[in-house]
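Model it.
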Amino acid sequence: MSLRSHCTRWFALCLLSSSVLAASPDGVVAVSHPAAAAAGARMLAQGGNAIDAAAAVQFALNVVEPQSSGIGGGGFMLIHLAKTNKTFIVDSRERAPSQASADMFAPDGLPMPFPLASTSGLAVGVPGTLRGVDTALTRWGTRKLADTLAPAIELAERGFRVNRFLAADIANDNGRTRIHPETAAIFRPGGVPLAEGDWLVQPDLAKTLKRIAAKGPDAFYRGPIAWAIVKAQQRTRSDLGESGKGRMTLADLRQYQAVIREPLIGHYRGWTLATMPPPSSGGLTMLQMLGLLERFPLGDAAQGYGFGSPKTLHAMIEAMRLAFADHAVWIGDDDAAPVPRQGLLHPEYLKTRAALIKADRRMDTPQAGDPLPWESSIAVQPKPSRTKQESPHTTHFSIVDRWGNVVSYTSTIEFTWGSGITVPGYGFLLNNELTDFNFVPAADVAEGNPGANDVAPGKRPRSSMAPTLLFKNGKPVAAYGSPGGATIINSVLNVTLNLIDHGMSMQQAIAAPRLSVTHAAGKVSCEGGQDFMQPRFSVATQDTLRKPGHTGLGEDGTDGCQETIGSVQAVIIDPATGIHHGAADPRREGTVIRVRP
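Modeled.
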């Protein structure tokens, strides 16, 4: 039976291509894969709310985008409840096990090679996705966990056609799906990588999801599945030996709990943003960039600050460099070491940092600033930490239901294919989230450095995820977010600027080419290689950026904007009409589904 037949059997819906903006007074889902979007719409059609739909989408993504997220990983679910006008976040980020230590990725003082560390059990954090979804359903959902698992079970049991994105991630995995035999058996049967159009059935995963549906989340965090997780993460790469074995115990799994957090609130040109606080760096760094850019007249073409102009792009590049300099030093798990969030966003601190941006020249590599004068509760001094490789393969989706409840949800298993370890007999991949910690400890008692992102027992590693909700006059008007490792922050920034400063519709804001810098040294990545990315960053504009020394754009006279950055899925609530819209990103198989009354 085809995917479209499945959708038709489930409910009457309208399936739109990524280039179409869907409008409805009822529920809307915007997801990176059509089968997962259909799972969410199925919940809405059955009378469920946005939280129910989010659970179904997340479980379905485990089946159809296994390289990006799943029950072996974690995430952040931002929820807005229309009835109470309250916004909060369910934090299901993975935790370091109780036996973790600050030097475990540098046992002899030298950092392990990332490709080896990230594909060994040592990298596996205690997974939180299932506990987080169940927590949200129990508190605010209307459907049972088993109901939300049903679409994913069907997809795993009956199969689906491999799309070009999954096929490309298998073919170009740098060996990640070949290292561990259970993973190779699923995605490279007989040694041959699955290709676009192949039919993928996952009976072990279906069995696991059925067990969870029947027995609840404790079937995952206790008993045979928990035992299998612990055993699987004891695998190591031969070059690492015993030091590469994971440290998770049955007690770590049994004790895992999701955390309910207040969102981080920021303001930009009369708009309000609610986004993810630490342990994610995403929201804080994105709000800091907005604060740095607010003194520039972005959007005013008469002053040279129109979309894609050299002045606009230069200001964005410099703001990103400054914010990532602070990001590398100050942000980690706020529960383990205090983060100076008030100081980093204080107007006076931002004023001193923004003064470093000069319209006529590129700044030297900026160092982290000192926000502590505006943060009386913390007394530490900064020390830079290593910037690690991050994968673009996370996933994000957004949902609004007929009652106006909104979910913006980013989830991940960290690198593409996570650790590459599939739990034998259970069919799901384990994360490599612990490689988001500093490999070499940065804490220094003499310097008063707390080691904000050093490994510690029970600690959550720093993330870049930034699910975001945009408000006007106290009412939510849009929810969006993106995958993309450190580029998540810049994808969300680009879309926000496109909406507020450049007056674009959400679909235009998503399709427009993006600019990204994820390090203080300032190597620029930018888009323009696909037809929908309009208006382009011209070669003349790129040459203007090259002159002061911006790097990453290639040779003079060439088009250096050929990257693909992020995949933003969004829902919009029209404040004037109350009509709900959706917009999906054509960078992946972005899909908007509306449920007809």
